Each structure stands twice: as C-alpha cells, then as structure tokens.
Amino acid sequence: MRTIWDVVHEQARRDPEATAAVAERRYSYRQLVRHVAGLSEVIGRRADRGSLVALDMDSPLSGAVAILAAARAGCPVLPLNRQSPQEHRRRILADARPSLVVRATAECAFEVTEPEHAPGVDDALGDVAYVLYTSGSTGAPKGVMVSHAALLDRLSGLARTPGLSAGESMVAMTSLSFDISMAEMLLPLTVGARLLVAPADARLDPDVFVDFLDTHAPDVVQATPSFWRLVTTGTWNGAAGSRIWCGGEALTPALARQLAPVCKELWNLYGPTEATIWATAALIGVDDPITLGSPLPDTFACLDTEGQGDPDEGEILLYGAGLAKGYLRRSQLTSERFCHRRTPHGRTLVYRTGDRARRHADGSLVFLGRDDGQIKLHGHRIELGEIESALEEHPEVSQAVALLCDSERPDRASITAFVVAERTSEAEVKEWLRDRLPPSHTPTRVAVLAALPRTAAGKVDRMALAGQEIVS
Predict the structure, then answer these.
(1) Second label for 284, Cα 20 to 30 Å away, from 74, 223, 311, 452?
(2) What CATH code would you report for 375-466?
(3) Please, which residues have CB within 8 angstroms of residue 6's CB and are 6 or more apart in sequence?
(4) Strand, coil or helix: what is 103?
C-alpha cells in the first residue's frame, strides 16, 4: 500500500537539500526525513501496525512530521483539538481508543505516552491515513476515516487545481483538527514546495498575519471566509503575488469583491471532511457569480433531484476518488451517508453531503445551504443537535433548542440556545457547557424559558424562537 510517507520520501530523495519547511528555523527535506524516521521508530516499537495514534500538538510542522512518522510505522493518526475542553476530548478518546498519544514538547520534539483507556482493535484501519472527528447530531462526535488512497488522490488533484508546484510555498496555520490543515501540511511536501509555518498568534491577530505575509510572500494562502473578513477589516493592502484559497464556509459576493482585486488569484473551495479536504474549486473574479465551480480531478459532483419538483435543485452528491471510508465503528451511519445513487456515470457509491445546491447556467453548482440541522460557523462544521444534547445533560434542563442567528451576516453570526429549566441561570448553563463543548460550539447567548413555543402541529416553533430578542 502506497502512503503519504512514500510520496514525501521519494520527493526528499529527488532533492534532499531543497527547503521543505520554514518555521522557527529552516528544514531541508533531508532534515525533515531524519525527524520523521526518529519518531517513526518510537511509534513502531510501541504500537502495532494499523493501530490508531492520537496527535496532541499545535505546530503544523510537528503535525506533518508526526503524520509522516505514523504512516511510515503503518499507523493512522487522530489529530486532537487542543482547544476542546477536557470532557469533550475524553469522549473522543474513549470512542476512538488510540494505542498511543504523541505530544509535541517543542518544534519537531515529541513525547509518546499510552492513553488511560484500553486501545481499540480495528482491522478496518489498516489502509487509513487519518481519522477526524466531526460534530454529531446525537451528541456523540463521529470519526471520519480517510484512506491513504483518498488522501494521495486528493493531494495530487490539488497540486493541479488550484495548483502548487515545486519551489513554491504554502502557508500552514490551521489547527490540525480541521481537515484543511492536511492540505497545508502535506501538499507542499508532496511536490517539492515549501511549508511556511505562520506564528501561532497569526490565527488571532491580523497584524501578525499581515506581517508574516509581507515577510514571506507565499504563493498560496488558505483560510476561511471568517478569517479573511477579519483580515480585511484592518490595514491589509493585499497580497498581489499570492493565490488565495477560501473555503470552509460560504464565500459571500461582498468578500469576493474585497479579495479578488488584491491577490493573484481567488479560489472558492468546497468539500466536507467525508470527501477528503476539498471536492470542488472555482476561480472567482471580481464580478463573477459565487459558485462551487468544478469537481477536482478524479472527483465528480451531481444533484440528487429524485422526488424534487425542480430538476436543477437538490442535494449535492459526491463520488469518485477522494471519498472517505466511512465513520469509525458506525456502520449504520456509514451506510446512510455513503450509499448507491443514480448519477450521470450510472449507479455508483456516493457521499450524501446534506448540502443543497442549484445548477448554474454554466453547469457549476450554487450553494444554497443545509438540508438538516448542521451549520457552518466561522469555518467550523457544527451539528446543532450536539449542542442540544449537551444542554439536555444538565440536571436542571428538560429541553433545549440551538439556533444559528444572523446567518445572513457572517461576521455577526452566532449560536443562541433556548433551554427549559426551573432552577438555573444563563451563567450556570454556559459554565456547564464550557467543560463539554469546544469553544466553537458554545452558544454566545442562552435564554432560560419556562416552556418552548409550539406550532399547531405540536412541534417546537423555531421561527418564533428566532424572532425573540435575547439580552445577554
């Protein structure tokens, strides 16, 4: 089986002294491989091939080394969210049951420990590159298994579209628990490009980010629309030589008009974790309509219009190379979301995204929103059901509803929760959630009510709740 390690190792052999990464210091491909080999030997001595290895680190360079080292040892990785509260991490670790936890103690320096729980034994992980947990509507996050074959195909496609070549550079600053970080960490190393590690402060401070761009003049910079919106509110004058990849949530026409004139190229990228990083890409000009563009190489997208009144609108189905294997130890959910449907290429296995789109005149797709209770907020994929489930675990809360507010104004969008409770307060509920949900999932406001409004059919009246004024 060919892995991400094989591809990077071959690249290192072709040009060992080329710069592989620039972080606290410069690393050649030869030096990078040496770090990978050292960590891989430790993992190989302490874990069986095919067993899951959890990664507890922030640095993209350390993350890249750890992913490659695990692949060299025949082990998939589970990147952990370091911003998640302890209870949320505990639940993920208990569900995934990794054999080892690798922590970065410094850049490219690691400690390897064993988790408190018994490791899992799962033969289905033999060809898996990584497992990433996404929000789950039942309150239990679900682990998406991505194979080496899917990862390599997707990286190969991204090298062609939107494109990255040997000698170029790409910024890495996204948290390892967000799957677009895989493109930032690994894509440059597969083509002989440079991985530019942004300072940790760059994620939060636009001035630090802008200084970094001015200093390094990267060829590719990837971030969510929320982050780019934050950057454009400051004194940034643009990055004329950089290609901007924008994805993780809907790109608005207003933001596109701000970004397109101040960069070399603006790309709108779309794709769920289950389709391995990205699935489609659109080159966006100043006056272009915002579409999802065309599928990446070896990937296909179509609309499921069965039972719909409009043949040009429906759920987005993705198929071809790049699909994940499914959900870790969740066979029923896997069969629900990864199933066979009729497509322009015949009946084949597809991933049902739950996203709705309309077919544009040129054949590309225009994103319309979600079919279910899942939302995208500041680049994070969130199931409102997971928030509601956590709220209803509170001993005083009998019912809960979470809503996305100001969705039409992405810079002000937030989550509001409504709970039915007798003896608790907003502050107490927020404190309860702080230990159970990552910050990205925590409601900005909580309203404690005696009862939830109902429709004539007896269902919770979400429209009525959305119209309520909440005072924090």
Answers:
(1) 311
(2) 3.30.300.30
(3) none
(4) strand
Q: What is the mean pLDDT of the chain?
A: 90
- pLDDT (tens digit, 9 = 90+) per residue, 250-274? 888 878 989 999 999 999 999 999 9
CA distance 121 to 55: 18
Pairing of strands 374-377, 346-359: unpaired
pTM for the whole structure: 0.84
**Amino acid at site 231:** V
CB contact at 8 A, 460 and 453: yes
Give one DSSP letter per residue of 307-336, joined into a string.
T-S-TTEEEEEEEETT---EETT-HHHHHH
Buried b or exposed e, range 84-95, using 16+ CB within 10 angstroms: bbeebbebbbeb
Name 157's bridge partners: none
User: Measured between alpha carbons, how far is residue 7 from residues 79, 279, 444, 466 in Å?
Assistant: 21, 21, 44, 50
Q: Choose among 342, 404, 401, 321: nearest CA to 370.
A: 404
Distance, CA of 107 to CA of 60 (rounded, Å): 9
Tell me the residue length of the chain.
472
State CA 356 to chain mean position distance: 19
Q: Which pLDDT score, from 0 to 100, does residue 471 have? A: 43
Sheet holding 142-147, edge to edge: 109-113, 100-106, 53-56, 77-79, 128-134, 142-147, 326-327
Give one DSSP letter per residue of 375-419, joined into a string: EEETTEEEEHHHHHHHHHTSTTEEEEEEEEESTTSTTT-EEEEEE
* Distance separating alpha carbons of residues 267 and 277, to the nearest angstrom: 14
Instruction: Give the CB-side neighbour count of residue 389, counting CA atoms within 13 A.
Output: 17
In this structure, what token pair is assigned to residue 129? 């590159």
**Domain boundaries in the chain?**
4-283, 375-466
Structure tokens at 195: 């991985």
- Reading the block at residue 374, the tokens are 């899942």
**Residue 459 pLDDT level (bands cut at 50, 70, 90):** low
Which amino acid appears at position 309 of this protein?
Answer: G
The CATH superfamily of 4-283 is: ANL, N-terminal domain (3.40.50.12780)
